Amino acid sequence: HLHPNLRAMNSSEYLTATQLAQRWGLHPDTLMRWRKANKGPAYFRTPGFVLYPLAGVEQYEQANTITNDQP
Known about the structure:
Layout: H1 4-7, E1 14-16, H2 17-24, H3 28-36, E2 44-46, E3 49-53, H4 54-63
Antiparallel strand pairs: 1-3, 2-3
Helix pairs in contact: 2-3
């Protein structure tokens, strides 16, 4: 069940830190360290939650994708 604050938003447009960690195969603590170091995708805090807008996560993934075309 979603936290009441999240029900007002379209939950498919946001990932929690746990969901993003699962998506990337990371431990949630890694994302916490990245936030403290100003690394990683944009996020915002709500009481008791850190949320990552999915559009920002996808932009971050595209910007950090390494292809064989890049020198």
